[in-house]
Amino acid sequence: MAMRVWLYARLSNDDDPAQNSLQNQQEICRAFAEKKGWSIAGSSADDNISGMNFSRRGLDTLTAAVQVKQVDAVLVKDLSRLGRHRTQTALFIDYLREHQVRVISVTEGVDTFCEEDDLMIGVRGLMNDYYAKDIGKKIRAGYRQKQREGIVITPPFGYWKDRNTNQVLVQPEAAETVQLIYSLYLQGCGQKEIARKLNSLGRKTPAQIMTERLGYDSQKPHKTRDGQFLWTYASVKNVLAEEAYTGVLVNHRREYLGGKARAVSEADWLRHENFYPVIIEKADWKQVQALLKQQARPAVNNRTKHRYAGLPSCQECGNAFSPMIRYWNGKCRVEYVCRGYHRNGKTYCSSHRIHEEVLDAAVQEYAQTVREQCAEEVKKLAQLQKMWALRKPILDAHILSLQGKVQVLEQEVDEIVIEKVFAGNH
């Protein structure tokens, strides 16, 4: 039976598209498979994705095929196409080995099932890892220079960038939504109320506009149960806090190191005045910031205040349950409410809530059940120990008896061997 192979290709920003195009990579792998007489089970590719990132659609498709045992080998143009992160790449190769799937690098002649190639794989991993880190430094340096020059990479909601002229222009429909949000907030509407009004008016969300532009969901957007995009408290707050609508481009507000973001002090921000077309007047924006600061509640650590904060989650929408303090008939009680429903209403999720007393009772009942099970197991163990203590003298005597018989048999064997030796000599 011919070996079933999967063709995988990847192209990142820093690759030469002429030499490492996805089509070129797959053609090289396909020709290699046909020459060997192998059957092609499928193929997948990831475009414009760094080899340091292992959250890729193409790899997910490959992993799904591996899980259902449709693949015997993975063909790549070279190991760097699989990944440039040394540790993550090694872990992924080990995962494939556990599922009896080998990785074959066509241009390097490397096979992960060949022990002689282990050293080569390690050396290649080090080289790819160093290359990726070196490229990362150069990209960060270039990106920082663009920030100093006032070049915008991705404009905020309300604008769009003409890739031909590199001009940032107003997107009329989105800009109208931005102005409506500011107007409603200055009229006294809360952020949740604004979100509900935008949803009832059918206003497009930032995620919806991005999805329409890309053709797929670039991130996990908030949607209703029937798949409609949804404005939320957080998305409204992001618009209200965005200074770009006054015409100011603010760069270098955070730095990324090892995939983690670090806030940069305001003194080190790179500000460019009169960069964007103005959507919101400066005075209105400052008034909104003052209101936001005035209405902001001090941050508290809910885990110290409510013992179940962050633990229960909604099975319908996946959001966590938020603790709420309720006062009724002069009494105070704590209940946990689905955050998705609380923030976005019934179009997003149903009303789910549970009182803290109910959780206390459930936890206590479960603890009591576990305690009783443990007590029963301890009782069984004590009975086994008692039975063993009663049988131990009998078993010890039986062992001694058997040992005596073994010694007698060993002596008989020795005598027979000696007798045969003397009989042979005579």
Compose a concise summary of this entry.
The protein is α/β, with parallel strands linked by helices and 426 residues long.
Detailed description of the structure:
The protein is an alpha/beta fold and 426 residues long. The strands form five sheets. A five-stranded mixed beta sheet has the order 2-1-3-4-5, sandwiched between helices. It starts with a strand and ends with a helix.
Give the topology, please:
Elements: E1 4-11, H1 22-36, E2 39-47, H2 57-67, E3 73-76, H3 79-82, H4 86-98, E4 102-105, E5 110-111, H5 118-149, E6 159-162, E7 167-170, H6 172-186, H7 191-201, H8 206-214, H9 233-241, E8 249-251, E9 254-257, E10 260-263, E11 270-272, H10 282-295, H11 302-305, E12 321-328, E13 331-338, H12 339-344, E14 353-355, H13 356-425
Parallel strand pairs: 1-2, 1-3, 3-4
Antiparallel strand pairs: 4-5, 6-7, 8-11, 9-10, 12-13, 13-14
Summarize model confidence as the mean pLDDT.
Answer: 83
Please provide the count of β strands.
14
Helices, by number, come to: 13
Largest sheet: 5 strands, mixed
Query: How helix-rich are the residues, as a percent range?
Result: 40-55%
User: Distance between termini?
Assistant: 65 Å
Oligomer: single chain
